Amino acid sequence: MSKRCQVTGKCPVRGKSYAIRGIPKKKKGIGLKITGIKKRRFQPNLIKKRLWLAEENRFISLTLSVSALRTINKNGLQSIVRELRKKGEKV
């Protein structure tokens, strides 16, 4: 299973994690210094969801981000499925 939302297209992105030490200038220190940088990945908030498609009288399974669930609630499942089929995705 790929870590990609079928509706919004959200996927993991790359970033960095910083190790910081020192006393901030606000607290009368010399300032914060970065002592190490590590690469990391920001993962999307994905869930596998089984939704009832009333027009076809069946369940469909989709890998969705939680923000895509809100989009489905707003626009309706049928319009989202129509867009997915236009893109050529199997639903």
From TrEMBL:
Alphabetically ordered keywords of this record: Ribonucleoprotein, Ribosomal protein
Gene3D superfamilies documented for this protein: 2.20.150.30, Ribosomal protein L28/L24 (2.30.170.40)
A Gene Ontology term for the protein's cellular component: ribosome
Family annotation (Pfam families): Ribosomal_L28
Domain of life: Bacteria
HAMAP family named in the record: Ribosomal_bL28
Similarity annotation: Belongs to the bacterial ribosomal protein bL28 family.
Protein name: Large ribosomal subunit protein bL28
The species this protein was found in: Candidatus Rhabdochlamydia oedothoracis
